[in-house]
Amino acid sequence: MNKAILLIQCPDQKGIVSDVSRFLYSYNGNILEVDQHVDEEMGMFFMRAAWELDSFSLKKDEIASRFEAEIGKKFQMEFKLHFNFPKPKMAVFVSKLSHCLFDILGRHHAGQLEVDIPLVISNHADLKPIVEAFGIPFFYIPVNTSNKDTAEAEQLALLKEHRVDFIVLARYMQVVSAEFIRHFPNRIINIHHSFLPAFVGARPYHAAYERGVKIIGATAHYVTEELDAGPIIEQEVARVRHHNTIPELVQIGQDVEKVTLSKAIKYHLDRKVLTFKNKTIIFY
Ligand SMILES: Nc1nc2c(c(=O)[nH]1)N[C@@H](CN(C=O)c1ccc(C(=O)N[C@@H](CCC(=O)O)C(=O)O)cc1)CN2
């Protein structure tokens, strides 16, 4: 079913839900899903409304301007309008580890992810055979401290050429620049292999082992300039024991990473994530 999704945030006040519903009804909209949340401390209102588009009397490119004129301005809304078609284009960035890549390509192949994957980009050539076995173009762009700018420029050119909508860092072990992130604000999802805010950085399993924790986890978050500090979309944990070695922690953790990342991708694809002050509201 062709759907439109509105994601709204604005100062909280009476009548917002009523006016948004009346707007959709006035243009013959059949509301399919509606959720809202009030952050009382911040005095902020958040809402997600999804409705059937085929019977809607406004054309796709008329909706945002009509909504802004009739509702948005009145409530000083910040809103984003999305459609569940055409399929969004998702680029995957990887380094040497394949577990998250395999999980994503396997779910995509099984029809579990409503996306197109036009390309995979990596700073190592190791995973080229796997990606090409799934019939997806693989681009090897080495990155080091001296060529990061030119490497990122090449990455951005490929992303633009393939009209990529959002990016998944599937254990991509390079810190991306603020300039790169500026092109995809809240559209880069990273899987960090720890239960943030514990153990930021490149080697969380070693840090967890040294600390002797009894629970490890994974965190999917939108990427910001500050490492492992962006808005958290999803987290998951697993119990570990004193006798677990580092390789065992890695194995337990990698299973958690895969599940956590796939959930975060689905929430993003279903337009169920709003961001506010470096945090997220997820309308499950
Ligand atoms: N701007 C950001 N870039 C990236 C983030 C992020 O949150 N903000 N997350 C990382 C992924 N990551 C942890 O989840 C991570 C990746 C890389 C490193 C790191 O220290 N890398 C070294 C090089 C390591 C190597 O070459 O193997 C570096 O870049 O100098 C820490 C954490 C993805 N990017």
What labels describe this entry?
284 residues; alpha/beta; Alpha-Beta Plaits; Rossmann fold; 2 domains; seven-stranded mixed β-sheet; four-stranded antiparallel β-sheet; 8 helices; 13 strands; 27% strand; globular; binds ligand LMY7XDAE
Please provide a written account of the structure.
The protein is α/β, with parallel strands linked by helices and 284 residues long. The protein folds into two domains: 3-83, ACT domain (Alpha-Beta Plaits, 2-Layer Sandwich); 89-282, Rossmann fold (3-Layer(aba) Sandwich). It is 32% helix and 27% strand. The protein has eight helices and 13 strands. The protein has a seven-stranded mixed β-sheet with strand order 7-6-5-8-9-10-11. It has a four-stranded antiparallel β-sheet with strand order 2-3-1-4, with helices on one face. A two-stranded antiparallel ribbon has the order 12-13. A hairpin with a 4-residue loop joins strand 2 and strand 3. The two termini are 19 Å apart. Bound molecules: the ligand Nc1nc2c(c(=O)[nH]1)N[C@@H](CN(C=O)c1ccc(C(=O)N[C@@H](CCC(=O)O)C(=O)O)cc1)CN2. The site of the ligand Nc1nc2c(c(=O)[nH]1)N[C@@H](CN(C=O)c1ccc(C(=O)N[C@@H](CCC(=O)O)C(=O)O)cc1)CN2 has 15 residues, from strand 9.
